[in-house]
Predict the structure.
Amino acid sequence: MPKLRLSRIVPLIVACALFMEQLDGSIIATALPAIARDLRTDPLHLNLAITSYMFSLAVFIPLSGWIADRFGTRTVFRAAIVVFTLGSVLCGVSQDLWQLIAARILQGAGGAMMVPVGRLAMLRTVPRRELVNAMTWLTTPALIGPVLGPPLGGFIVTYASWRWIFYVNVPIGLLGIVLATVFIEDMRGEKREPLDWRGFLLMGLALSGLVFSFETVGRRLVAGDVVGALFAGGALCVGLYLVHMRNHDHPIVDLRLVRFQTYRISLASGMLFRVGIGALPFLLPMMLQVGFGLSAATSGLITFGSALGAVLMKVAATRIIRSFGFKPILLVNAVINAAFLAGCALFSPATPHMAIFGVLLIGGFFRSLQFTSLNTLAYAEIPGTLISRANTLYNMLQQLGLSLGVATGALLLNLTMAWHGTHALGPRDFWPAFVGIGLLPLASLALFAPLPPNAGAEMSGHRRSDKPVEREDPA
């Protein structure tokens, strides 16, 4: 099949999986208050249904590269869709919070293979000079999921049952399996590296301890000494993994890749950005429904403005990046995104719905540009032989950042309620959380400063300087 055709078809097939994942995530965020009422639990505890999924992604993503290299991208991609779809069905039949969390963890295990392996197939198929366009083909259809998610989720919750929000994944999953069978090659790694089981165990324990200690701090879900023990255990496992990594030829997560400047900066700044952005889908529906008293349908129609703005940006993303280059965009856009995140603190029950929609629309536009820039710049200096490892680490930290974002939003709400001395969420409890997450993108400014003006020029097509991009020795 011609390369040009593959550079469009393969990203679109991966986008089918990403569409299912994004639709699922945006729908459940809108449905959280209704799920909490049906399962008779605190709405703030439902953030566990989101973080457990993202945490599962982060833990199992390190296996995706090895499994794809060993068993083939098409085989693993199709199996991952099956697991994700099965997890969706189990979510729909859950009868309590813990059953829902267990089903979400299974979903996460499928998603951990589904999107990263699909993206790996794209990276191995598409030439570097076409990668920005391929990323656009990948993310544009996938962004339809977040656009449809809030209004569709609000409609389902208001006029049917929240359980149907998970059943919609079944036909999408079947379509993805058929397309993958027809168009994706069953590519395997050139070398069959042994699986680093010890590294996987240490990394899983490290993430478990750190994420769940952060998730439970200040929440009164477990005793304070248990939280401290979880954090200490997670930190210890991080140290043990670093020692293990230095003595292993093929570590499951290769942190040595941070020696590449553009990759290192994309990881660090992307983590800060995603923590802030990750809190938004949790905070907005909660504020509109629990704080302002709006129906799930109305809330969904308002919040889909954010995803609609992201879709509109994809039309212009390639041209903007080519015109200005990565560094100016990342610097200016960090400030713009911080302003729009913190600006949500100004919303009140009296704010016109169209005004909220407009702010979310414009904010989604600039958030999408930041995501596209970071996701593309990350691979600017990575040699082809290290693409699989770089893709694994990048996807793991991406999901970890989003998971910490949801936990951060829930923590800030709990701290605000404690400050106000209340036990039920009200309109005044949300503004500190939005101000807090709005500060995070600003912290990335210092990280972008060392980038050379022509960083990633081979991918962006922007040629501000004739000086070639300096690359570090990959050895």
Notes: Residues 464-475 have pLDDT under 50 and may be disordered. The CA atoms of residues 74 and 182 lie 10 Å apart.
